[in-house]
Amino acid sequence: MKINSKHHLKTLFDYTIILMYTFFFTGVTFVGNIEQHVETINNLIENNNDFFPFYIESPTLLLIASYLKISHINSLSVFLFLFLLFLLFLIVITSQFLGNLNYIILFSGWIITINWWVGYVDIIIVLATLGILKYLIQNPNNPIIFLFCLLASFSHFPIYLFVLINIFILFKEKLNLRSFLYISSGVIIGLILNQLFLSSLNIVDSKRLWYIISNETISKSIMSLANNNIFVFYSGFSASFLIFVCFTYFSYLQKKDYLLKIYFSIFISLSCTSLGLDTSRVFSIVIIPLIVWIIVNLESFKKEKYFKQIMYSSFLVAFLVGPIHVWDNNVYFNSPFEDFSIFKYLLIQAKYMLGI
Q1: Which of 12, 17, 215, 280 is 20 to 30 A removed from 240 (C-alpha atoms)?
Q2: How many domains in the chain?
């Protein structure tokens, strides 16, 4: 009972800390095209198939909102805010399998991404990725792995595909036949359901693929990576950046075979990042399996000199430097969508409900 009580207290403490970080440090904003999201939701409600943007291929939040008949930006702000709070709580719960080292992943770059890009399915991919890793490490025979894979594949298959490649590179020794079948069947069924949904809207060709090909997106994205490489790396790792650097260095000193896995994972993550202009957004999500893998393997470096100092310094640097995000070849220290602060719309909705 005492262990469970301590566990619950730690979970609540972690959730409180992450909320304070979210509200008072990073800020919370809608994506810049949130008004188009409202229009898309209304089109789904009214079965109007005349026009859908490229992100209709990542339809989870849009489908839920249309099912709930959320047709106004103020009511959408309430829904997305509550959804953010709920999934953040699930992420905190899921991260507890890492023990006290879960703070390394909780304050990594994805937390900035999901707070500045509210309206996209990024937070769903983060939760699904942590869920898959948790059960892959602790109980690879648990069928919940299938559900996480289905959800991630349906929500955003391109990003999840690269996340999955990273998982296979880093955690292949954790895979058995059953977990492999759960993952592969979840991916396939999620993708099929996604395509069936798009077909119901008479969408045959991939809008996302057309966007990448027709707008010189790859060349622009590679230029963004080249111009802002250190910012991209830092934005992806954030509080785990110094830990990542030192882990790589210690691996080199101890001549461990970790280096090859790290190089492959970074290559895969950068390859995915180079396919779009949402540079830090994509990199911070795809790199999650590497951060978790580093946390799992930190035990072998605890005897290294200055290990604890490195751990504390990594968090200190993250809080002193503050949020950093690269998008479309620009470096941002505040959300690029500050005009779409979610709290502005929440205040409007609150005033309406109170009759003010």
Answers
A1: 12
A2: 1
